[in-house]
Structures are given as C-alpha cells and as structure tokens.
Amino acid sequence: MADLALAVDIGGTKMAAGLVSQDGSLTRRAMLPTRVSPDPEIGTSGPGPAVAPAGAVVDPGTADPGDLLWRDLAGLVQRVLAGVGAGDRVVVCGAGCGGPMSPGGDEVSPLNIGAWRSFPLRERLAELTGVPVFVDNDAKALALGEGWVGAAAGCDNYIAMVVSTGVGGGIVLDGRLLQGRLGNAGHIGHVIVEPAGRECRCGARGCLEAEASGTALAAITGQPARLAPAVVVERAGTLVGRAIASVVNLLDLSLAVVSGSVALGFGDPFFGAAQAEMDRLCRLEFARGARVVPGGLGDRGPLVGAARVGWRGAGMGA
Ligand SMILES: [Zn+2]
User: Which residues are CB-contacts of 213 (< 8 A; sequence separation ≥ 6)?
Assistant: First the structure.
C-alpha cells in the first residue's frame, strides 16, 4: 500500500498527468496535445502546434474553448486515476502550469494557452479529484523536482530553466524556492540579452524568450527549432548562458539546470556555448566556476516537479 501524488503538467503544447510516489518515482503517466484555440495574443498562424486530440469530441459551436480544454484535462486525469493499483491511494494533487497565475494557482492565465484567462484551475482539480490540490508555475515546479531527485539534488543555490516553446525558470536560494510578491520569481525568460533585439510578447525587447525560445528560433529561421543550423544553436546557447550569468552574479548561485525540448534536443553544442558565455561573464570570485548542466529528469521532470509541489504543499514526502 502506497500513498501517491497525482501530478498534472499543463503546457502550451501538451498536457500530462501521472502518479508519483513519495520517493519521486513516476509510476504511471498519460499525455494529450493541448487543444489549440484562437489566441488573441499570439494568433493562430504562428509556429505553435495545431493538433486536436485524437478521438476528442469537439463541438466548437456551443462549447467555450476553455471548457473544452478542461474537459480534455479532466479525461486525462481520470484515465490516470483509473490506473491506481489496488491498495494504493492518491492523497494529494500537485500541478505545474504555465504562468502567469494568481498566488497558489487559484486563477491561471497561461501565456501559451489563450483559452484560459483567470481559469480556476485549483478549484476544478479539487472538485475532480477530492484531494488537496497545490498549483505552481511549471518552471518553479521543475526547479523543485530537479532539486528533489534530479541534477540539482544536494544543491542549495541554483536556477532550473526550461527552454522549449517558451523560456521559464525557478530559483532555489539558501535551499528555498523563491516566490516574489505574486509568486512569479524566476522568470528568466524576460531577462534582456539583446538590448535592441526582437520584440517580446511581454512588450519589451530583446528578452531571452524573444531570442532563444523554440518559438523565437522558428520565427528567426523559418523552420522548426529542431532543424536550426549550428550557428543558431550556438547563438541560442550563448544567450541562455548570458542570462544565467546575470542571475549567477546577482544571486550567488553555483548551478543552472536547463531542461526543455529545445535545450535538450540541441545538446552539447548548446550547453557548450552556454558554459563558454558564463565563463566569460561570471568573473567575480564567488561566481567563477558556476556550471550549466542538462536537466537530470528528462521528460519526467515536469510531472516529478508537479508532484513535488503537491507533496510539499501537503507537508508530506521528503
Ligand atoms: Zn519579455
């Protein structure tokens, strides 16, 4: 008999749910592409995925896009819950979701999911599952997961980042996850890396997300980020390293853990360029030697991190 956390990860490309034990093992999972709806902020002609879930019942004439998306997620969660083994039980739910959101995730408005604005995610999940629900930004969740059983285990001062469709991050300082006034600390995607650079969705110019996210690279090269030529991969790595260096210098960190399909897909050339830029810019005695490494949890990271949000919120687990 084991107590389990239901982990939920909600991103602009896909939604996932899984079961995670108190020692961080992911024992079951399922995923679904995120239903794309007209998005007034990023338009429908952008490079993002436009995939409807196979077999989904869509009645666009009557249903609100936000409700359709919730129905997808609820079905996914129920599918995972149906797989809970005899004698095991789910005692808490942790969710990671794209930001921004109100403190505690009572209302989420993910930039990448136009159908959800002030969506009451925590309440809906609580009604669905009947267990306590804790919601946090997906990148902060990943930071918790990497520090729990991933590449930052044992480290008390680090940043964990996601470089995928967008760029996000979470920072652990003195062993504590930074929150900030509204819980948005760690948004490294909006650190400026090119002062006269590309316009960002946030309204500023030259943000890391506007220069090195999968969306940005696709816009720059005219092809999917995974096909980016070497010079573009190297530049993306350099800019990520530049942003990390500023944070390392500011906060006295020793480690940056970078995950996300774009970063992990680029691999060594990307990480080499990021480390070289950090070595060039982290020159103060305390900052010298700061390292950037790939995330240790691979594609399990988002769900393991979401589970950690749940366990931690409930005061259970390691
Ligand atoms: Zn920005």
Answer: 163, 164, 165, 166, 167, 189, 262
